[in-house]
Amino acid sequence: MKTINYFLLFLSMSIFFSCSNDEIATQSNQPQSTTVASRTLPPPTPGELRGLYDAKFSNGTEFNLLFEYGNNVTFGSPTVNDMLSVSGMQTNYSYFGTLHEFIIFDGTNYFNFRFNYNSATTKLTGTYGTGTSYTNLGTFTAKKHITGNSGLSQLKGYWLGYYGADSGTLVGDYVMVFEENGKLSVAAHPTLHGSFPATGTYSIYGNTVVGSYTFFIGGTYSFKFDLTDGVPHVNGTWGYGTNNNNGGDFNLSSQNFY
Predict the structure, then answer these.
(1) Strand 94-96 to strand 99-105: parallel, antiparallel, or no bridges (unpaired)?
(2) Model confidence band, residue 114 (pLDDT cutoffs 50, 70, 90)
(3) CB atoms within 10 A of CB 150
(4) Contact 96, 115 (CB under 8 A)
(5) Worst-scoring range by mean pLDDT, 5-9, 57-61, 153-157, 208-212?
(6) In DSSP terms, which residues pair with 254 in a beta bridge?
(7) In what order do the strands lie in the sheet with 51-57?
(8) How far is CA 42 from CA 31, 37, 50, 172, in A?
(9) What single-letter DSSP state applies at residue 27?
(10) What is the helix (H) or strand (E) element at residue 155, kind and residue range?
(11) What value, to the nearest 5°, has the Cα angle with vertex 111 and ends 195 and 254?
(12) pTM score, two decimals?
C-alpha cells in the first residue's frame, strides 16, 4: 500500500503545465463572465463550508483544503499554491446531509476523502484512502481559518472581489487565496476552480501587503493594499510586471468567517 508520504513526494515532482513564450496574456483577457449578474456569487452564510481550511492527516502531515461555490474543492499539499498546477487536485464534492465526499487524482492514483462537517464549529472529521477505499490510509481533521484582527491571521484565507482595468471602474471577478509562508493563488474568475489561475508570493510590512503573481498561461502582475485592523475588506491597486499601480484598482472581501 502506498503511503501518504510517497503520495506527497510524487505530487511535488508532478508537472502538469508548460507554456511557451508566445502564450502571453493580460489580466484583462483572463476568462470571465460578461455580466454583473452572472459574475456575482452569493457570499457565504454563517457556518457554510466555503473557505480555506487548515487540515492534518493522522500521520501528522499538514495540508490545506479550499472549498468554493458550486461544490468545488481544491487540495493543497502543503498549500493550494503548491498543488494548483496539478489538475487532479481540483475536483467537486458531493454531500448527503453532513457527510461529504471527494476524490483527487495525482496522475497515477486516486485518493478518496470522506468527512462530516460540523457547521457549528466549522470543523471536518473524516477518513481517506486509495483505490476504491475511503478508509485504508487513515483519518484527517480540518478547521476553517477564521479571519483574525491583524497581520497574517487577518490576511490568511479566501478573498473575493473585483478588479478594474481603469481607475475607479471594477468590472472583473478577482480571487486571492493567501496561505502560509507568503504563498498566493489568484484568478480573474468567480472561483479559483475552473479558472486559468496564477501563483505568486506576498509580503506584509506593517499593515501594507504587497505581492506579485504569474498566470500559468503567461503574464506577471503586482499589487498593493493596506489592511485595517479588524476590517475584512480591502481596496488596492494592481499593475503590470513589477509595477503595482499602473493597471487599475481592485477590492476584496475575506470569505473566511464563521
Answers:
(1) antiparallel
(2) very high
(3) 13
(4) no
(5) 5-9
(6) 159
(7) 90-92, 72-76, 62-68, 51-57, 138-144, 123-130, 110-118, 99-105, 94-96
(8) 20, 11, 11, 16
(9) G
(10) helix 151-155
(11) 40
(12) 0.85
